[in-house]
């Protein structure tokens, strides 16, 4: 009994300590935002952009180069996530960026990187986007990249390829890139840096740059189409090319999005800057000046460590909503200034005046969603919208009723035909497009996924919709169909099956499914079986490869928190696995309100692009600990809310 009282006091003290730390970190206008770190490609591309433009900030370049050296793996290359395997494309970009920054190829870290790259086949086998970047510097011939004529801007909607058929991130990246690929400019590259040493065969002599992207029939078909386009493109009438160029410029300038940038993601923003430069925009053109500023606002500069990196985007809406969930769970009063300021900030960020690209599939639907970033009005997503809606409903339903109801109607209208939700678009399921040579990364689309669908279900259930409602019933059927054989669910936006399973179990509890059903218990059993000996959970980013699905990693606070929240949603508050997991979180090292977590636990594109949300090791552990305390002290075996 003495031990229990001591632990209860320890738990209370920890929760209060973290709650107060969050309050101190709140911005004056009410929001929170934490760093969002990707792999080496984004900071490497930042250096490459400066050399493309011939506008080099030497002190900043030095700091980014220090970061790139710091993140180099023991294998000599650069991984997509901490402690991951070497990735050839990230490694080529990082090596090139370091050489641009002045690193001598004979230095030990450069020799090590070069050996690793050559052992993997050299720069010629890097992905399409890397080869496009090299083509812009004249380091590979343009035949090394797939043909993507800018005339695609003029294609009718019924055509097999159309901008409306690809994801939001693909659209915003592709449109300015089409201009670059049409005009084929040469980077200024003031120091005339080359990386011929990364090619086994000289780049101009290499013949097989384009390969089948995975499907025997579709892959061969699209490779044949590419060969035809390479011959036909120079013969396209000039008047159509100019018309397509004008349409591309109009398309992306309408979406430049001020200081938040095109699509509010770095690759699109960088492509837009390069496109405006080669189209002859003057250096003082307000659009170009603002576009460059939007990129620099992504920088994280640590003068103490003399390092810097560029974020792929920022996540203030996501961070703010999840922080508020954790704080309310931790006992912060709903009407406190901390919660009210946060909710009011979110209220101002709801997008109600612009029908974004999503409206193509549902033109009569009224906009009412939230974007991930500070501003991105053409691209709200249902995941952020559901998370914001749930915290508004929980904290003060009456005060934010109109925002909640509008968001719910928008989410209902965004449901895909199979009962699930994609993040940004309806029925973005043209899977054959993932086999075009341009899409060797396999991330061209935004199909419905279990984690996003579960969040939408949680929100609608929290508003009172029952299992018998048609929208809800279709979602449950979708989720049951998506369950893996071992009982888990795939996590599209978080690593991986722990994230997906947490999302789904919370939603099924929210909609009052019988949590003792066999399919739910299989998920519970799977989670328990994945617990590490230290009481935590850790899943490797490599699990996105089918043959590596069961690989574990050292325990992480964020993944442990997801597993605990999932088990508690399933009514397992008294299970020994939960007790051990809580013990892991209590004992895990932390400082300044953040549990220590080096590993990446999120993903942009599976197998291609991974993320480390620095906020995840802050709000998710607090949330899990507070929920545990609340359930232990209350009369319910299950949480009352959708997350």
Number of helices: 22
Distance between the termini: 32 Å
Sheet having the most strands:
3 strands, antiparallel
Q: What would the CATH topology of the largest domain be?
A: Glycosyltransferase
Q: How many structural domains can be distinguished in the coordinates? A: 2
Strand order of the largest sheet: 1-9-8
CATH architectural type of the largest domain: Alpha/alpha barrel
Shape: globular
Strand content: under 5%
Low-confidence stretches: none
Instruction: State mean pLDDT (0 to 100 scale).
Output: 94
Number of strands: 9
So what's the CATH class of the largest domain?
Answer: Mainly Alpha
Structural overview:
The protein has 643 residues and is mainly alpha-helical. It has two domains: 2-30 and 315-427 and 434-633, Glycosyltransferase (Alpha/alpha barrel); 37-310, Glycosyltransferase (Alpha/alpha barrel). The chain is 48% helix and 5% strand. The protein has 22 helices and nine strands. Strands 1-9-8 form a three-stranded antiparallel beta sheet, with no helix packed on it. Strands 2-3 form a two-stranded antiparallel ribbon. A hairpin with a 3-residue loop joins strand 8 and strand 9 (609-613). Helix 4 runs antiparallel to helix 5 (108-119) and helix 14 packs antiparallel against helix 15. The protein is globular, with a radius of gyration of 25 Å. The two termini are 32 Å apart. The mean pLDDT is 94.
């Amino acid at each position: 009994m003495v031990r229990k009282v001591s632990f209860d006091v320890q738990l209370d003290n920890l929760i209060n300590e973290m709650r107060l730390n969050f309050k101190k970190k709140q911005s004056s206008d009410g929001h929170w935002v934490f760093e969002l770190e990707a792999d080496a490609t984004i900071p490497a591309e930042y250096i490459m952009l400066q050399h493309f433009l011939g506008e080099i900030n030497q002190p900043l370049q030095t700091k980014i180069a220090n970061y790139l050296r710091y993140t180099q793996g023991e294998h000599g290359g650069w991984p997509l996530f901490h402690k991951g395997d070497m990735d050839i494309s990230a490694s080529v970009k990082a090596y090139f960026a370091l050489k641009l920054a002045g690193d001598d190829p004979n230095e030990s870290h450069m020799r090590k990187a070069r050996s690793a790259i050559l052992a993997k086949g050299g720069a010629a086998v890097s992905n399409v986007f890397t080869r496009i970047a090299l083509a812009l510097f004249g380091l590979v011939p343009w035949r090394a990249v797939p043909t993507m004529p800018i005339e695609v801007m003029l294609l009718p909607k019924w055509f097999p390829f159309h901008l409306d058929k690809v994801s939001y991130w693909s659209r915003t990246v592709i449109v300015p890139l089409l201009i670059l690929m049409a005009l084929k400019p040469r980077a200024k590259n003031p120091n005339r840096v080359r990386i011929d040493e990364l090619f086994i065969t000289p780049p101009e002599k290499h013949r097989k740059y384009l390969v089948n992207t995975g499907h025997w029939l579709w892959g061969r078909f699209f490779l044949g189409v590419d060969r035809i386009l390479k011959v036909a493109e120079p013969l396209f009438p000039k008047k159509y090319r100019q018309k397509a160029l004008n349409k591309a410029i109009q398309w992306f300038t309408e979406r430049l999005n001020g200081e938040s940038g095109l699509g509010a993601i770095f690759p699109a923003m960088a492509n837009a800057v390069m496109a405006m430069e080669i189209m002859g925009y003057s250096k003082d053109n307000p659009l170009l000046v603002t576009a460059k500023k939007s990129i620099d606002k992504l920088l994280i500069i640590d003068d103490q460590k003399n390092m810097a990196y560029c974020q792929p985007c920022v996540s203030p809406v996501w961070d703010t909503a999840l922080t508020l969930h954790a704080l309310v769970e931790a006992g912060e009063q709903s009407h406190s200034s901390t919660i009210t300021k946060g909710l009011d900030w979110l209220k101002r960020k709801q997008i109600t005046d612009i029908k974004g690209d999503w409206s193509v599939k549902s033109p009569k639907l009224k906009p009412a969603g939230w974007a991930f970033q500070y501003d991105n009005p053409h691209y709200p997503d249902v995941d952020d919208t559901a998370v914001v809606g749930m915290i508004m409903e929980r904290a003060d339903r009456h005060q934010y009723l109109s925002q909640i109801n509008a968001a719910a109607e928008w989410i209902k209208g965004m449901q895909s035909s199979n009962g699930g939700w994609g993040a940004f678009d309806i029925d973005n399921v043209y899977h054959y497009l993932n086999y075009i040579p341009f899409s060797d990364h396999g991330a061209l689309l935004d199909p419905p996924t279990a984690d996003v669908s579960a969040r939408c279900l949680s929100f609608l259930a929290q508003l009172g919709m029952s299992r018998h409602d048609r929208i809800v019933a279709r979602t449950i059927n979708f989720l049951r169909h998506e369950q893996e054989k071992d009982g888990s669910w795939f996590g599209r936006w978080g690593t991986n099956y722990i994230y997906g399973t947490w999302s789904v179990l919370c939603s099924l509890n929210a909609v009052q499914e019988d949590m003792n059903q066999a399919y739910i218990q299989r998920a519970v059993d799977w989670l328990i079986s994945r617990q590490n000996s230290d009481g935590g959970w850790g899943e490797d980013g490599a699990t996105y490869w089918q043959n590596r699905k069961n690989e574990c990693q050292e325990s992480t606070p964020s993944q442990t928190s997801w597993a605990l929240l999932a088990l508690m949603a399933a009514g397992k508050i008294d299970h020994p696995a939960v007790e051990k997991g809580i013990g892991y979180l209590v004992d895990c090292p932390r400082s300044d309100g953040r549990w220590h977590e080096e590993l990446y636990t999120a993903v942009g594109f599976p197998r291609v692009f991974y993320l480390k949300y620095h906020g995840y090791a802050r709000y998710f552990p607090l949330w899990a600990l507070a929920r545990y305390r609340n359930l232990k002290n209350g009369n319910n075996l299950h949480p009352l809310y959708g997350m």
